[in-house]
Amino acid sequence: MTSRAGLSALVVTLLLVGLGWVPATRAAFTDRASVDSGTVTSGSMTTPATPTVAQRSGTGLTRVSWAASRVGTLGGVPTAYEVYRYAGATGGTPVLTCSVTVADGAALACDDPSRVGGTVHYAVRATFGDHWRAESSRRTFAADRTGPVVAVGEPPDGFRGGANALRREVSRGCGSDVPACGTATDAAGVSSVVWALTVVGTGPRATTRCWNGTRFTDQPASGSCPQAAATTSTTRDGLRWTVPGSVEDVYRDRGEYTLTVVATDAFANVTTTTVSVTAT
């Protein structure tokens, strides 16, 4: 049977709790109920808004950014944010892609370092202490992982014939005295086009040589000819490119000529195209 003194103490304690005079604690909970923890409750930890997702120019990495969420009623903020990638719009196993520890001046954004293709879904999870978590709804996103479309106008891949005929063909197709030309197009924009042109001669010239824009040089000991930037001009949907030099200087000797063109778009996607012709 409860004594009168014990009952009085219980009443006083309940009054103190009700009035908020009980000292704050550091209790942590994972449920969404309003469990008291001094000035913070799990029920007062707001769910982050759905993040914004975009692809970064130059790197092609996927950037996830979000607005700050709140904890408690006195302007508290989460201690950290974590960004998760899911394969589906619901359910599934989350993949932690990046995280941000909250500090003065910290940007509420981070990059997914994995250049994943296809459609994925991103969510932001706010954390407070060791146990409180609140996760946003998911944002659907499909990154551009397709490289530019590269077309080699001249020389025509697979050509086999006399050097004079090859020079006439290239001059007619390019419309100017250049040894190679073509286009590179991409919806995101083409950021660069580079090339390498080699020839393997016949007879005493049966070595691999590299065109450097003005003349042929011996292939370096590394075994590959260096790439050089193409001369470009803007078209409606990309770039027109040409290789510097003259058809007379390039297609002068008999041999197999190989042209490699590498185009990169605004999101760092790369396309490599190679054509070969033979002058007999």
Descriptive labels:
280 residues, mainly beta, Immunoglobulin-like, 7-stranded mixed sheet, 5-stranded antiparallel sheet, 3 helices
Describe the model.
This protein has 280 residues and is mostly beta strands. It folds into two domains: 22-142, Immunoglobulins (Immunoglobulin-like), CATH 2.60.40.10; 149-279, Immunoglobulin-like (Sandwich), CATH 2.60.40. The chain is 11% helix and 41% strand. The protein contains three helices and 21 strands. It has helices at residues 4-19, 163-174, 247-250, and strands at 36-37, 40-41, 52-55, 62-65, 80-86, 95-101, 109-112, 119-128, 132-135, 139-142, 149-154, 160-161, 180-185, 190-201, 208-211, 216-218, 228-229, 231-235, 238-243, 255-265, 270-279. Strands 12, 14, 15, 16, 17, 20 and 21 form a seven-stranded mixed sheet that branches. Strand 3 and strand 4 (62-65) form a beta hairpin. Residues 5-38 have low confidence and may be disordered.
